[in-house]
From TrEMBL:
GO terms for biological process, alphabetical: pyruvate biosynthetic process; ubiquinone biosynthetic process
Enzyme category, top tier: lyase
Organism classification: Bacteria, Pseudomonadati, Pseudomonadota, Gammaproteobacteria, Vibrionales
Biochemical pathway: Cofactor biosynthesis; ubiquinone biosynthesis
Residue sites binding substrate per the record: R82, L120, E165
InterPro entries: Chorismate--pyruvate_lyase, Chorismate_lyase_/UTRA_dom_sf
This protein's UniProt keywords: Cytoplasm, Lyase, Pyruvate, Ubiquinone biosynthesis
Protein name (database record): Probable chorismate pyruvate-lyase
GO cellular component: cytosol
Length: 180
């Protein structure tokens, strides 16, 4: 899995995030994927027979490692960094990098550190308090061959986490058929 890390990490590190409005993605055939407010994992699962998560890396990082805008979104806090590839029928679909403040990993949420290869979305979106905001998008590819990414903040029991997702070339987001 380190090949994913080498390939995709730089793409998510240097993203210029923009508002969905400025990229005019609403109403496009892929826009509904990027704007999905509910669990992306659940949605991807509906498009394959076997949905799996490969855990690439998980480690604690110091607040000094966060970028200025990450600090603005989740605070100047030490975090658990989790990197995974979401796979549909063995194909890599989404590379995801999540920052979970250590202050979020408390009380009922202390189990988020032990997810392993269980999709984060399955855990977060079973909680009725879960919500998503601060959604931003970016095209890390070209106009002809887009490679979409999005970043959003999730809240669980009023505690934040920040998820950045890169939709890889084989993801259903690029399929021409109308999707549900
Ligand atoms: C946030 C969600 O969870 C997905 C699963 C992730 C994981 O297991 O680490 C990371 C990012 C998401 O794409 C979701 O389903 O919406």
């Amino acid at each position: 899995m380190s090949k994913f890390k080498q390939l995709y990490k730089p793409l998510l590190d240097n993203v210029q995030w923009e508002t969905p409005l400025s990229l005019a993605i609403e109403g496009t055939e892929f826009g509904h994927w990027l704007l999905e407010p509910d669990s992306l994992s659940r949605r991807l699962q509906r498009h394959c027979d076997e949905f799996t998560v490969s855990l690439i890396e998980q480690k604690k990082i110091d607040s000094t490692m966060l970028s200025a805008d990450e600090r603005e979104l989740i605070g100047d806090v030490n975090c658990l960094l989790r990197k995974v590839v979401l796979m549909g029928d063995g194909q890599p679909w989404v590379f995801a990098r999540t920052l979970i403040p250590l202050s979020t990993l408390t009380g009922q949420e202390s189990d988020l550190e032990q997810l392993g290869e269980m999709p984060l979305g399955f855990r977060v979106f079973t909680d009725s308090s879960a919500r998503r905001d601060a959604l931003e998008v970016a095209n890390t590819g070209t106009q002809v061959q887009p490679l979409w990414a999005r970043r959003s903040r999730l809240w669980i029991n009023n505690k934040p986490l920040l998820v950045a997702e890169l939709f890889l070339a084989q993801a259903p987001v690029y399929s021409k058929e109308r999707q549900c």
